[in-house]
Specification:
Structural class: alpha/beta
CATH class: Alpha Beta
Distance between the termini: 5 Å
Radius of gyration: 18 Å
Number of domains: 1
Helix content: 40-55%
Number of helices: 13
Strand content: 5-15%
Shape: globular
Length: 330
Amino acid sequence: MSFIRTFLGDIKAESLGFTYSHEHIICRPPYWVEKGEDDLLLDDYTSSKKDVLDFKHLGGQSMVDATAIDYGRDVQGVAKISQETGIQIVGTAGFNKSFLWEAKLTPALRQVIGEFTTFGQWIEQTSIRKLTDHVISEVEMGLEGTSFKAGQVKFGTGYNRITPLEEKTIRVIARAHHETKAPVHSHTEAGTMALEQIEILKSEGIDLQHVSFGHMDRNPDPFYHEQVARTGAFLSFDGIGKIKYYPESTRINGILHLVNKGYEDQILISGDTARKSYYKHYDHGLGLNYIIGKWIPRFIEEANQRGYDGETLIHKFFVTNPARCFSFKK
């Protein structure tokens, strides 16, 4: 049996439709709140909803909200946007990267996970078994004590390093996957450490076909991408529109390199739109309609010019591949 778990219930994989595979819809990361980084706070319900509606009006059907507990998710708010827009949203249990764990826990989170001072203290002082049980409960019971269940489990590591606590959370997520069959997502900082993460996952007996690695386009190294793809894992090119890192030509070249090597069934595309300045209705940014409205036509044209079937590839990246990647297989 195969299904995808959304905020509003379980659906058949074929019902997911056109999907952005890594987004942030409403989030108030405690770390960035403490630092006063307003651009990194998506804290206005109406603005977020308007951008989601822009996506819908161009044919979008689903999104994966990759906001974990340490990134300040708003479970009720995102669920309400899903209800009011009809966009199917997949929620996320698990963790992000370790520097975020310096932030103090809010009173609401202390009620959920216990009387710890910081995320780091919680992760350090809690056993792998108890952390695993927490993640499992968010998949099977609901996120942060709500009735809205997570549809994937996530871990993350920092730039060119994996700390002991990050390794601990990788093992937590691996064990939660074994018990729930929830798909696994990895945050790789600037696209680094995927191969090292893979070694830890292998030591936990994980089938890499159930794992997606985020931010692969931040490290646009074709040989490295092939090494990840050979494991059967999904590669997420989720920085579309972020020209401050690389031009779109670099991303498209990386994607088509993988296609040329036969890995087109393992590619996911999204924007990781996690700043006010990226959103149209917060701060006049490109918005959630950019990929579907402007990037896809460009990709199709460029792929066709190189002898590929651009429309078929887009269907795989946004429909077929997400339906496989985000499925629970029990």
